[in-house]
Amino acid sequence: MTNVRVYGGGGAKARRGSREGSPLLAGLLVGIVLMIVWIALARMTLKDVGLASWGVGALIGIAVAKTARPPTRATGTLAAFLAAGVLLVSKVAVVTFGLQPALREQVVKGPEVVTLMFLADMRKNRSFSPELQRTIDMRPELVRDSSFMGPGEELRTRMTDEAEARARAATPAERERMVRAYYDQTIFQTIGFWFLLITSFGPLDLLWMGLGISTAWKLGQGTI
């Protein structure tokens, strides 16, 4: 008679192991979702919302602890490293895909900035009305006169009025061309991205990031 051995205990353990999730994968997925939400929030508010760093770290820690069997100091360390990486990548992503496009949209819609762009373009191409352009050519010292209530004030006012009228009458394509020429290629290429990125790491932002990482470390161990 053949003896049949039953390995029930080992098979049950194997099945339980196969059903367990990956703490690393869970932390990454939660981090990506939170990054997308953070970018959307930045675009709507035109702010980096540094306080979100704390919440991101906390949720990553919880996700790692929930999928770890059991959560340990090692999973807490994993959660802290994941939180640090996600927060750094999120900062760059928020500036690139959130603040930068949102600020550009505001510039395109903002009448004051667009008027200044048209004014610069009209001065460069000498495209004011014939009478005004003649005065500018004959009296360039009036354009350089920046004193309040000085002799050049009337001339500068006329120039600004014509630029404002040109900006109001411009088609969306013309406004877009002006923004590309004077905002994208001059202002934003010079200081835009790096200025926004550096200013996103203020003292309070660093504090929230530190709290987020430490909270991820604690919650990743299954402790509060």
Written description of the protein model:
The protein has 224 residues and is an all-alpha fold. The protein has one domain. The chain contains 10 helices and no strands.
From the structure above, extract its key features.
about 220 residues; mainly alpha
Task: Please summarize what this structure is.
The chain has 224 residues and is mostly helical.
Distance between the termini: 58 Å
Computed structural class: mainly alpha
Largest β sheet strand count, sense and barrel closure: none
State the low-pLDDT regions, or none.
4-19
Radius of gyration: 29 Å
In percent, how helical is the residue content? over 70%
How many domains in all? 1
- One letter per element, helices H and strands E, the order comes to HHHHHHHHHH
Number of strands: 0
Q: What number is the mean pLDDT?
A: 79
Q: Report the principal-axis shape.
A: elongated
SSE layout and pairings?
Elements: H1 8-19, H2 23-45, H3 52-67, H4 73-109, H5 111-125, H6 130-138, H7 140-144, H8 153-169, H9 172-199, H10 203-220
Helix pairs in contact: 2-3, 2-4, 3-4, 3-10, 4-9, 4-10, 5-8, 5-9
